[in-house]
Each structure stands twice: as structure tokens, then as C-alpha cells.
Design a protein that fits this description.
The complex is a heterodimer.
Chain A: H1 2-22, H2 26-46, H3 50-75, H4 91-112, H5 126-129, H6 134-142, H7 147-168, H8 172-178, H9 187-193
Chain B: H1 9-29, H2 33-58, H3 62-91
The chains are: A mainly alpha, B mainly alpha.
Chain lengths: 194, 105
């Protein structure tokens, strides 16, 4: 049963991931991303991480992808991009070689351990079988072992909110800082003023 | 566990590295900043899948706690990144990643 679930979810994940990379329209990419996120959530359930599966669907598929779609619609950049042009000659081939290498390296490392990776005996599902649910376990660990990381995370969220407000503010300053570079002064001018 | 027959945990790891490789290749190939962001999300998801798999293999809930942190960082990163993209695209609607070379020395 888990085998069946695994292969169906893995197929959804990989098809969605390829869809993100290969669709020329950003809206299609975002919708493919939803498929991948959903497949990963199914794999979380298959590994008894029920809380994370729920969080994955709510935060990623619910919030982040909607944010992406909002930005796409807001900016009107949903035109198809011509994927046949290769602006830097040889970039595609080099990227594919790098991608294959990134895939092959962990798999080779896994193979050298005899497909065992950790040396521990795979103990299927005993996080759930030990009587503590995963929500309870995560909560307990977050507020004991990882309490400082949790506090720093709250600071990070506050910084992100402030940064987003600053970026979205319609002042002359932030916009000028970001785009529209004036004609670049020639090196001779710079030497003259300096 | 009735569902335990058959699936090796290493299959999950192989799938996660495939997802990560697809995301990395997309990040290198695509030029639309939004799609590049989605590829980063793909890579983050591959890493969370790896963490959950190791959490199960080692029977340690800490791996799942780390995934919570990854989610928070991903959300913060998307907020700030999309803010920057909106600020850029407002002035230049068809900017690609290659046009944003202002910080280049």
C-alpha cells in the first residue's frame, strides 16, 4: 500500500517539478508548483508527519502560491516566455550537466552506504507508535531543545514584515534606489571629479 | 505498521535529490525572476522531504521541528523577494534576471 502511495505521489511531484521548469507561462508554473507541494504533503502523510502535511498544504499551497499568483496577476507578466532562445550559448547544456551532477552525487553517496544512509535500522513509524503524536512531539521539542531558534524565528518574521512594508512604500527614495540607472558616467568624468 | 511493507526510506531520499536537481536546473535555466523563485521553493521542498525522511529513519522528532523552521524561513523569503520583484517590475515590466545588474561591480 505504501509502495503504491509512494509511486503515485512521486510521479505527481516529479511531473509538477518538470512543469514548473518547462512551462513558458508563469501561471502554469505556479499551478504545477501546487501539484508538487501536494505530492510532498502526501509523502509527509505516508511517513506519519501528519501535522507537517497539513501545514504544507495550508502555508505553501494556500498562502505562498496564492502570493505568487497575486504578483503574477498584479504585474501582468503572464505572457509566455519564449523558451527556445538560448541567450547564453551553451548555458542550457551546462545547467543540465550541473543538474545531473547534483542528482547523481547524493545518490552515489547513498549507494556507498548500501542504501542505508544513517546506519540506523529504519524504524518505520515509531514516532507515532510511541504514544506521543507528532504535533505533541514537535511542540515539546520546539519549546525546549529549539527555544532559541524559535525566538530568532520570531525576530526574522518581524524583520520580513518591516522589509516588505519598506519595499512596498511609494516614496521617491526606494524606487529610485532600485531601478532606472541613469546613463553611466564615463570613466574620464569620474577621474575628472575625483 | 501495516503500511510498512516494501518502501525503503532511501527511495524518499532519491526522490528528494531528483526534486532538488530539477529545481537547481530550473534556477540556472529560467530567466523570469518569478519562475526562478518557484524553483527555489522546489529545492526547499526537496530538503524538507529529506528532513522528514531522516526524522523517520532515526526516530527523532527533531527533523520535523526543523521543517517548521524551514517553512517559516521560506515564507519570510517569499515575502521579501516578491516585494523586491514588485518594486523592480513596476518600473520595468519586462525585466529578466539578466537586466538586474545594478549591483555588479
Amino acid at each position: 500500500m505504501e509502495t503504491f502511495v509512494f509511486f503515485v505521489a512521486a510521479a505527481i511531484c516529479l511531473a509538477g517539478a518538470l512543469g514548473v521548469v518547462l512551462s513558458s507561462n508563469p501561471v502554469h508554473s505556479a499551478l504545477s508548483l501546487v501539484a508538487t507541494l501536494f505530492g510532498v504533503a502526501v509523502l509527509f502523510v505516508a511517513q506519519n508527519a501528519h501535522f507537517l502535511a497539513a501545514v504544507q498544504v495550508i502555508i505553501y499551497a494556500g498562502a505562498i502560491v496564492v502570493l505568487f499568483l497575486f504578483v503574477i496577476m498584479l504585474l501582468g507578466v503572464d505572457r509566455a516566455e519564449d523558451l527556445r532562445v538560448d541567450p547564453l550559448v551553451g548555458q542550457r547544456a551546462a545547467a543540465i550537466v550541473v543538474g545531473v551532477a547534483i542528482f547523481a552525487l547524493p545518490v552515489a553517496a547513498l549507494a556507498t552506504t548500501g542504501w542505508d544512509a544513517t546506519g540506523a535500522v529504519a524504524n518505520l513509524g515509531s514516532v507515532a507508535d510511541s504514544g506521543v503524536t507528532d504535533v505533541e512531539g514537535i511542540g515539546r521539542v520546539l519549546f525546549t531543545r529549539y527555544i532559541f531558534a524559535l525566538e530568532i524565528t520570531s525576530i526574522l518574521l518581524a524583520i520580513a514584515v518591516v522589509g516588505a512594508v519598506m519595499l512596498a512604500k511609494k516614496g521617491p527614495k526606494p524606487a529610485d534606489m532600485i531601478v532606472d540607472l541613469p546613463e553611466r558616467p564615463s570613466p574620464a568624468d569620474e577621474e575628472g571629479t575625483a | 505498521m501495516l503500511l510498512a511493507a516494501g518502501v525503503e526510506p532511501s527511495w524518499y531520499l532519491i526522490l528528494a535529490s531528483a526534486l532538488f536537481a530539477i529545481g537547481a536546473t530550473g534556477l540556472l535555466v529560467r530567466r523570469n525572476p518569478l519562475v526562478m523563485f518557484m524553483c527555489i521553493e522546489l529545492m526547499l521542498n526537496a530538503v524538507t522531504l529529506t528532513f522528514v525522511t531522516f526524522s523517520r529513519m532515526l526516530d527523532d522528532i527533531g527533523g520535523q521541528a526543523v521543517v517548521v523552521f524551514v517553512l517559516v524561513v521560506a515564507a519570510a523569503e517569499v515575502v521579501v523577494g516578491l516585494g523586491i520583484i514588485v518594486a523592480i517590475m513596476r518600473r520595468r515590466p519586462d525585466a529578466t534576471a539578466d537586466d538586474l545588474a545594478l549591483l555588479k561591480g
